[in-house]
Amino acid sequence: MDPAPDISATAPLETGTSRSLASFKRAPDLFRVLCIITSVATVATLAWMIFEITRQSMPAIEKFGFGFLSGAKWQPNREIFGVLPFLIGTTVSSVIAILLALPLGLAVAIFLSEDFLPPPARQFIRFTVEMLAAIPSVVYGLWGIFVVIPLVQTFGQWAVVAFKGVPVLGTIFAPPAYGNSMLTASLVLALMILPTITAISRSALVAVPATLREGSYALGATRWETILGVLLPTAAPGIVAATILALGRAMGETMAVAMLIGNSSRLTASLLAPGGTLAGLLANQFGEASGLQISSLMFAALILMLLTLLVNILGELVLRHTQRQTAGIR
What we know:
With 330 residues, this protein is mostly helical. The chain has 14 helices and two strands; from the N terminus they run H-H-H-E-E-H-H-H-H-H-H-H-H-H-H-H.
């Protein structure tokens, strides 16, 4: 028969531990307090930014009103300010970049998440693609000047001749073909947002439960039928999130675009002609601006901020809708 345990030695320890736990529970949750303070500070900072930019842009808002959005001329010496060419340039360059980067980034994400290559090769390619996100924007701009601009000039001269007289294409590739153009900026933007789309889409594809993949194969589906019919629909919320983040970066990208797009306020439909974006306008003119021009630039900054917030809100709504649509197969 085993001797009875001597609880006299452990009783004080248990009593001390209970007291410590009780005092710990009574103490304020510092992590929760820190999270609340950080969250409130973030919201307050955003509200402060919007308030300050709005306050600085009030003279231009009172003078131009909504005509600022439809104005096609930006002439600081005559105090005529309109951001329509820059608004269209921001939208066109971002949309073209997304149209180019999304299929390519999604293809790379599928290639890296499935067993097309040995694991070491996949890790090397994934690391290389993600390293593209660490390259400074100004380096992309310099690379664009020395590499992309000559390529666009060569392609542009060919496209002008090839599509002359062709409806739509003849307008999009109208002469003359400049190097610093909307097409050049869009191509570099597409490369800059490619790591964002690839990394987040790959993570979404890897997170798909293995049972779904195995079940699809058990039903006789091929690899591509499984990828297109099961994996991509299940990972759709993550892919949508990646597209939203990439679009936001494309709209706000400044330095590389300012170095490549030509910074022209002339409104044209040709992708081979110089253009301008809101971010490039702020970067180029704010240092030498004065008087009403500063207020007009702050008005442009306010429009860019609201446009970015609108894209993120719409993206969040699309993301929630996609999550509800795919909830049944997760």
